[in-house]
Design a protein that fits this description.
This protein is of the alpha+beta class. It has 4 domains: about 1-60; about 65-75 and about 310-390, conserved putative lor/sdh protein from methanococcus maripaludis s2 fold (Beta Barrel), CATH 2.40.420.20; about 80-90 and about 220-305, Elongation Factor Tu (Ef-tu), domain 3, CATH 2.40.30.170; about 100-220, Beta Barrel (OB fold (Dihydrolipoamide Acetyltransferase, E2P)), CATH 2.40.50. It is built from 6 helices and 20 strands. α1 (about 1-30) packs antiparallel against α2, α3 (about 125-150) crosses α4 (about 160-175) and α3 packs antiparallel against α5 (about 175-190). The longest helix is centred in the first third of the chain and has 29 residues, at about 35-60. It is elongated and about 115 Å long. The protein starts with a helix and ends in an 8-residue tail after the last strand.
Length: about 400
């Protein structure tokens, strides 16, 4: 557009010069230039109008406020984080296996159903074990009768002698073995029914009713996912900066736009000789059960804490003049409108989102808490450029 205006203005100038030259030629030849003077006057008027319009457009362009985004300078504790990859796991996990053999009579739970501690999960037909218990109890009664015969009238003896005769009688009558057989049979009857070791959810059922199972066969898995743990490997050079109880932020590939807050639970005191890293366990609440064991996670662990630091967003920092760092400070003139003032600054520590601005005796080489620095739309600005803050909504600061 500017090029078009230049060409028009230039063309108008050439026409004016041509007409002026023609008029001079007519005058020099004694002819009346009146025939062209009206046209020359019109062109001259057009040229002046174009010049005024161009000046007005240039003035309007200089008054346009460039939309930018800004953020307030903070003075707070800067947290330097350690990042690592990990995988979500259930807080507690137990494989429920058959303890005795038999036909699976009942499957009392479905996958992903919540069960309480001690809830019935599966039952094997107990008939065989109930018969064994009855037989064991009959053998015990027989052994007790033999014991009574052997110790009849022993209550008249000296206590020490009586106790010794009782021990011998129990052994000879078989009462000790009979009582053990009863307890073993009771245990087998109870083991025919499998119960939840803790409150959780049922997962990975491996059997179905009517199936024959043997001791050790996997029936299902119980997981407690009301809390989730994420295990990450932290390099030995960074392990000294973290400690249990500090905060952790976790992002999962399944929820890319969410950050879950957790806590550093434990730090393994042993460093792996191959990876030169130690295992760190992070716990985070999962009341809705959205986070599932096995999900890939990216974890940021709070490490060093640097108090009372001036901080600005990383996006505020620009580099010019061979790597010198600068930022633009918003100088208000009217509400969300103002001027962009650049300042060369010296930076210090950094984390994922913020950069420390080092103090300086020269106020034009640092920033102050509460000032607004530009964070977007500022890469091509010049000093004193007219701007308007549009972050969070038109005209909002």
């Amino acid at each position: 557009m500017k090029a078009s205006k230049t060409l028009i203005a230039g063309g108008a100038g050439l026409i004016i010069l041509s007409l002026a030259g023609g008029a001079a030629y007519l005058r020099r030849n004694g002819e009346d230039p009146t025939g062209v003077s009206d046209t020359a006057a019109q062109i001259d008027s057009l040229a002046r109008a174009g010049g005024e319009s161009g000046a007005s457009s240039a003035s309007a362009a200089s008054d346009i406020a460039i939309p930018v985004e800004g953020a307030t300078v903070l003075k707070d504790t800067m947290v330097i984080s350690v990042t690592a990859a990990g995988e979500a796991a259930a807080w507690r996990h137990a494989v429920v296996s058959a303890l005795v053999q038999g036909e699976l009579e009942e499957l009392a739970a479905r996958e992903n159903t919540r069960v309480g501690a001690g809830a019935l999960l599966a039952a094997i037909d107990p008939a065989q074990y109930q018969l064994e218990l009855q037989e064991a109890e009959a053998n015990r009664r027989k052994a007790e009768a033999s014991f009574q015969e052997m110790t009849l009238f022993d209550d008249r003896l000296d206590p020490a002698v009586r106790d010794e005769r009782a021990r011998n009688a129990r052994s000879k009558s078989g009462l000790d073995n009979a009582e053990l057989a009863v307890e073993r049979a009771k245990l087998n009857v109870s083991r025919a029914r499998s119960h939840a070791p803790f409150a959780g959810r049922v997962a990975s059922i491996k059997v179905s009713p009517g199936q024959w199972v043997n001791p050790g066969d996997e029936l299902m898995t119980i997981v407690d996912i009301d809390r989730i743990k994420v295990e990450v490997q932290v390099l030995e050079s960074e392990i000294g900066y973290i400690s249990p109880g500090r905060k952790a932020r976790v992002q999962f590939a399944a929820f890319p736009n969410e950050v879950f807050e957790g806590t550093i639970e434990t730090i393994n005191p042993l460093v792996d000789k191959t990876t030169r890293a130690a295992k760190v366990v992070v716990s985070l609440p999962n009341p809705a059960g959205r986070i599932l064991p096995g999900m890939y996670a990216r974890v940021s662990l709070d490490a060093r804490r640097l108090p009372d630091r001036l901080m600005v967003p990383r996006t505020a920092i620009l580099e010019r003049d061979g790597g010198r760092k600068l930022l633009f400070v918003f100088e208000e003139t009217s509400g969300a409108r103002g001027l962009a003032k650049w300042r060369y600054v010296d930076t210090g520590a950094e984390n994922e989102t913020m950069v420390e601005i080092l103090p300086n005796d020269d106020p034009d080489r640092t920033v102050r808490p509460g000032e607004v620095v530009l964070t977007a739309g500022h890469h091509t600005l010049t000093h004193d450029a007219r701007i308007r803050i549009v972050q969070g909504g038109e005209g909002e600061r």
